[in-house]
Amino acid sequence: MKIADLRTTTVSVPLEAPLRHANGCHWGRFVRTLVEIETDDGLIGLGEMGGGGESAEAVFRAIREQLLGHDPSRLEELRFLLANPTASLYNNRTQVLAAIEFACLDILGQRWGVPVSEILGGRVRERVEFASYLFFRYANPRTGAGEVRTVEQLIEHARALRERYGFRAHKLKGGVFPPEYELACYRALGEEFGEDSFRFDPNAVWSVGEAIWFGREIAGMKNDYLEDPVYGLEGMRQVRERVPQLLATNTVVVNFEQLAANVLRRGVDVILLDTTFWGGMRPCVKAAGVCETFQLGIGVHSSGELGVQLATMLHVGAVLPNLRYAADAHYHHLADDVIEGGKMRYEDGAIKVPDGPGLGVKLDREKVAQYAEEYRRLGGYPYDKDPLRPGWVALIPNERWADPADARQPRIPY
């Protein structure tokens, strides 16, 4: 069995509303590049990659000739072909490798007639629990609905998600407004849903002093962890020594060298494993084993997924015995998906792991064509820019906060 073709399609899939974060905004849609690897015997494996609001097709076109003729089961060889650790200093292909790995494992599962989770070691759970992923949001440009800016709007939004999807863990994405305002928002969540658990993520834009202050102020809440309050392992170490919460990261421990550094001198307690950032599903399973050995917690991180990558998150989450935290997903913010059957369903805050061979999902060709046309119509967007604040740049640590009293809405192509 050999790789005979590599095809890519960039799609733009609408969100319920634009999602604000510390460094900018998702401008009302996710731009994702779908990858299809076809073998010489006709099997097609699926992958997916983001690009910060931009297409990644050119990157895959550049490596296509390297892949043709390779055996998709030789994943370690493919790893060094695409992301040799020294060559990758010049062409960081970790996320590209991840999309290729997804597709190859999908092919192997189809060939062998088993779900990818069985290739990764076998399931210890059939469903993966998720946290609500709460964002401050601009209103939907078409309907004017969906804004989340005030405490009241945040509570209403969280309550609606809890009732609709069954979430019992809640993550608030911060770093948008001044820390004092976001503290009031987070405390309000704790007061409203006190029987649930909580986590806060300001995307590493606080100073060490701000992070320590915030961590002490939320000491009475049922916190899973405080995620990336500051940037850098040294900053995380300083905060960790002075706050009562566990610290989590998806920014400063995203490869095995960083994981080793954190093991030798602990700055982070919970490693959030992202199937894209870590270079695939198999590295996440390997990293989870290291974390189990050194008593580090793990979670499943979300980098903004459609159904193909969500399937990878589910298969990974299914096989990790030491997964004790509800996973993250942007998925419920999507208005639609590109897989057959539409969006996967949440039941009691969890999604069932696909049972079909491989990833267990197939592309809906009509949806792919529809959202590929949307990408051609709208183009990409700058993930690291705020559409309401042209010229604004987030600093680290940041001091240029958005004004929570500013009720203006940006004009966004939609």
Question: What are its keywords?
Answer:
414 residues; alpha/beta; Enolase-like, domain 1; seven-stranded parallel sheet; three-stranded antiparallel sheet
Outline the structure in words.
- The protein is an alpha/beta fold and about 425 residues long.
- It has two domains: about 120 residues, Enolase-like, domain 1, CATH 3.30.390; about 240 residues, Enolase-like C-terminal domain (TIM Barrel).
- It is built from twelve helices and 15 strands.
- A hairpin with a 2-residue loop joins β2 and β3.
- The mean pLDDT is about 95.
Classified by CATH, the class of the largest domain is Alpha Beta
- Sequence of secondary-structure elements: EEEEEHHHHEEEHEHEHEHEHEHEHEH
Assembly context of the chains: single chain
What does the radius of gyration come to?
Answer: 21 Å
Shape: globular
| Helix count, DSSP H or I runs of 4 or more residues | 12
CATH topology of the largest domain: TIM Barrel
**Integer average pLDDT:** 97
**Helix content bin:** 25-40%
Strand residue percentage? 15-25%
Separation of termini? 43 Å
Enzyme class: lyase
GO molecular function: glucarate dehydratase activity
Domain Mandelate racemase/muconate lactonizing enzyme C-terminal: 151-246
EC number: 4.2.1.40
Summarize it.
This protein is of the alpha/beta class and about 425 residues long.
Topology (elements, then pairings):
Elements: E1 3-14, E2 19-21, E3 24-26, E4 29-39, E5 44-49, H1 57-67, H2 75-83, H3 94-112, H4 116-119, E6 127-129, E7 132-134, E8 136-137, H5 151-165, E9 169-173, H6 179-192, E10 197-201, H7 208-217, E11 223-227, H8 233-240, E12 247-249, H9 256-264, E13 270-273, H10 281-293, E14 297-300, H11 307-319, E15 350-352, H12 365-378
Parallel strand pairs: 7-9, 9-10, 10-11, 11-12, 12-13, 13-14
Antiparallel strand pairs: 1-4, 2-3, 2-8, 4-5, 6-15
